[in-house]
User: Fold these one by one.
Assistant:
Number 1:
Amino acid sequence: MSRKGKRRAASILRGVFLLLVCLVCLFPFVWMIMVSLRNRVDILDPTKIFVVPTLKNYEAIIEQSNILDFFKNSLIIAVISTLISLVVGSFAAYGFARYNWKKREDRAFWVLSQKFLPPMAVVIPYFMMASMAGLLDTRLVLIICYTTFNIPFTIWMMRGFIEDMPIELEEAGWVDGCSRFQGMYKILLPLITPGLVATSIFCVINSWNEFVFANFLTSIQAKTIPTSVMMYLSVSGVKWGEMAATGVLAVLPVLLFAVIVQKHMIRGLTFGSVKG
């Protein structure tokens, strides 16, 4: 076989391998969609592969489980906590990137170490403080918790993006009469927008999918989508259809958001990887 033929065969094998990997990764989500469109009898019968789809599970969770209220709670909490994290984290990242002070790297590592804390290690103190403050089962307590964990991540992400921007661009603005804040807003911000988008996606995903805080700190009023799956566990068995339908509705918003901003996300993830 010629060298060109070997390269073509290797390219085909690589494509087939990547296709199989994608199918394996997508199979759980596809299976969840299939289960959400089946009747309870068909779900419990593994011999039935092709069945008539039904929307009864989606009707049940919307009409009986108040899933739209949980969906609203998750949306409000994720959006607010992400916006706060981006604003506070970006300003802090600017300080780490543009200012020099004693033990700056030690402080930066300390900030990142806050992300290392497992939620189960701090959920009890959060529960006690929220109970004393009267914040249990409110959106505010979850916004505070998620913001606390998203800000360190935002600082480290945005610091890299800001450091990749030459400071001479801001200095040129200062010479033209811009203040430091105006230089950030008018010069730096448009350049690091891909980084902001990439960071916001991860913050939204972290806030949307979080389970531990939402499960321990809320019960009814501020219940979120991930914790709502617990309602389908009962002594009579697991309501697989309703649980799968809830899972599909929980995944769709984040998936659509990622698809809409995928161009900015790719730019943000590869930002500063090549310099020249």
Note: The chain has one domain: 56-269.
Number 2:
Amino acid sequence: MTFWEHLDQLRGLVLRSLGAIVVLMLPIFFLKEFLFDRIIFAPARADFFLYRLLGTSFALDIINVDMASQFFVHLRVTFLVSLIVTVPYIIYCIWKFVSPALYESEKKAVKSGFLLSSLLFYLGVAVGYCIVFPLTVRFLGNYQVSESIPNTISLDSYISMFLSLILIMGLVFELPAVAVALSRLGFINRKMLVKVRKYAVVAALILSAVITPSGDAFTMLVVAAPLYLLYEFSILLTKIVTDDSN
């Protein structure tokens, strides 16, 4: 195909993805009570399962200081939740766009990475929601420079951190899928990853410092830990892929 034909294919991919997101936004918009009360604000309450497991008591007071904020927060959350739900379809569309340009051997190599990517994305979202975000909120919500200054968190601040950490964790969990695809293509192998393992710790800390919305040391460490574990998981997967190819 010509450049313009490829561009037209890409435009179709973008339009189909946006169309799927918009279609899902309508039912999700009307699930406001369930979405916010049962899911998004659950980590701000003392009965959240992680706090019960840790045996700690924590609750966060959230206020709204802007008249239009609650409506626009509702729209933003609806869009991003729709985006999260449609990730498998978006990945499928990307695969359909990319696959015609690949040789059969390359298709087999990259396809395994694409199949794994959806599962890893949702696993990352789950880790972000169940562990990273609650621990971050608990630490920052209890942190005070002075007892005379209580923490009362704005709605925008809470939602921004929630969405940022959830999406970031979903994206960074794609690392093993990328490693599988690259190892099948012959660009990397287990020995290469093991050799630079000591640098992976530093890279995880630097990356966590870049992607964490709050920038505090505690959140950085909470994000860096699963990042390094993902690197070790990538080493394991590349070993399995290499053994299978042999």
Note: The mean pLDDT is 84.
Number 3:
Amino acid sequence: MSLKKILKERLPLSDEELSKIRRGFEIIGDVVIVDIPDEVYNLKDEIVKAILEKHKHVKTVLRKVGEVSGDYRVAKYEVIYGGETETVVKEHGCKFLLDPTKVYYSVKLSGERERIFKSVKPNERVLVMFAGVGPFAITIAKKSKAREVVGIELNPVAVNYFRKNVELNKVKDIVKVYEGDVREIVPKLDGYFDRILMPSPNNAMEFADVASLKTKKGTIIHYYTFAGVEEEKNLIKKVEEIFSPYLNCKGIFMRRCGNFAPYVYRYVVDLVVL
């Protein structure tokens, strides 16, 4: 049952108030992230109560007050229930220690991470740019037969969690963690990669040249971006054009993998280097 429906049954709300209430929320371990517009902020205690009744394991509820931004890709939150924000997320047989107020992590990408690790072939060498706390890198290492997974992350807090999560999931023989800017680190890496992930939809296009340095014929690039539904028809062509100054490549797959705003989605476009 949606949050909106629960509140409608409990409170005498006007149609205008109901229209402002978001249907759902995100559960990250035992932390909930909910979007409460200012116009219905007075309902926050009832919203928290409804969440806790449905999810008794929750220890903290965060209200989102700012979108993901900056080089570290972290959103802004205020605590409206509880206080402890560090948590452990379980996903695809892996565990991820993290604090959503200090690092980027989205449960909504769980299905996309599954698609990726199921695509990885035995003995592949994989590069994950903007690796965060390691969800893509570690699920690939744990759930596929990749030979090596290299993860690069700029946010020092996320890197610290990434290293802890590598130990927690016992994949230190497969995953290599690098702290710093991908623009500085990628050119220094040895050899080429069979698969490259670029899961930073806000600015991945700025790093097409960097990713291209470590490709070879047959390399698969998973490129993530935000786009409006009206752009969907030509999105593969647009992404091909972003890479065209650096690579001869072809788009082979595209899908939505999360929403950002009304009629704006996160998309992934898979490319193969020719």
Note: The chain has two domains: 3-85, 105-273.
